[in-house]
Amino acid sequence: MQAGRVLTISQGEAMVEELLRLVEERAEWRLRFRRALLGEVAVSFQEVLETLQQVARMQQQGEERTSRLEAALSVLAEAQQRTAEAVLALAEAQRRSEERTSRMEAAIAELAEAQRRTEERVEALAEAQRHIEERLARLEATVQELVEVQRRHEERLARLEATVQELVEVQRRHEERLARLEAIVEALVEAQRRTEERLTRLEDAVQELVKVVQKHEERLETIEQILAKALIRMDRLESQVGQLANRLGLDLEVDAEEVLRSLLEDRGIRMLQEPFALEVDGEMDVVVPVELPTGERPWIIVEVKGRLRRKELGEFLQRLQRPSIQEELQRAGVQKPYLPYAFGLRVYADVDRMAEEAGVGVLSFRGERVAPRLWE
Question: Is the pTM of this model over 0.70?
Fold first, then answer.
């Protein structure tokens, strides 16, 4: 990090949001995040506080996403407790920086000058600082790649914004901590010498976070497997329902044929061949030629429905009256005159009148409800 460089609150929050997407979405970016944070011991306390703030926000985001991660994220709670006071105080001081510009600029300038002298005296520390700056530059480039990912996760951003609002409210209630900011700034030089110890704790926290993310991914895979099995079961159920529907349709056609046979026998009407079904723009369920006591030989055509309502009867009439259907029937050997019937396992009350007006017979499992007329 360059001497005197200070990140604003908005910049810190943007890095938090983008690093959160990096850790959650892509494993290789999580590795880059670890490499960017580990391996160097000489970092400014400002950078350590920003990194710890990112880990704390990652923990809070994980708690909002799933209650099942509460036990794992408790590992991060201790680290958050140790750093929360400093982070909140620093963030609040940054927000109020306009009011104390002169004092803050002087303190920061003094700290920058002290850091510059330290870098001149300790060449190894300066070299390590340069390496960290290079890693931060690479990390910033990686963060830019996350902008597109961030746009595809507006829902998660909404939850993060709610968290930020809570942080602002907490900062507002702790204005009295502003007085400590100058002391914290003065202590940054001493805190920098303790960077190695704090980086070690940060590494442990990041490793725990990686484990939590891995467990979360494993649970998601388990859920996906359960959903896949459920879809297979649903497919099987749909197949069984379809088979049941086909079986029910066949049973209804058999019932309709039995009722028709009984009716014809009672009326002294002779079937000239066994009833059959005919595929004509849909199925004519029962078709049979008969000989009436008068000597006429019409064809009986029966439409079979589980529920016979005006809608089903009207559709049957339209099909039977269509010239193209009559031509297909003629090609199949079914000649006029017709005796059309509609059979229903359940026949609605307003069907009989409509059938009688149209000259269509109505059958139920009890027998004939409406007698048909010959269609010439």
Answer: no
